[in-house]
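The instructor's notes for this session suggest beginning with a concrete chain rather than abstract definitions. Hand out the sequence below and ask the class to guess, before any prediction is shown, which regions might be ordered.
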Amino acid sequence: MKIIINTENIRTDFKTFFEKRLRHYLSDKFKHTPFIVVQDKDGNAVVQVIDNINELIGMFGNKPDTKVIQQWPGEWRSDFFTFTIEELQTAIKNETSLKEKV
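After discussion, reveal the predicted structure:
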């Protein structure tokens, strides 16, 4: 089974998303907007809702092409974004290296 995420109404410009939200994800308190992962398991589409970034990386860190959907709770509207585990891991590394330079 091939899983296709229709991104017609989902934003893929995740750079701004990571810049604004990544610090919240890395906080232990961040649990109010879960990550969504859709996987093929034995020919069935299985939707997983994951509460925090550590659990997400723990489950899918070795599967860099895994697509993730996340909501950005905006002030006037909420947008959904999609990105891969690899893109998320790169953003985390960049955020960590920025903290180390400060």
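Then share the key points. Residues 98-102 have pLDDT under 50 and may be disordered. Helices lie at 14-25, 53-60, 85-101.
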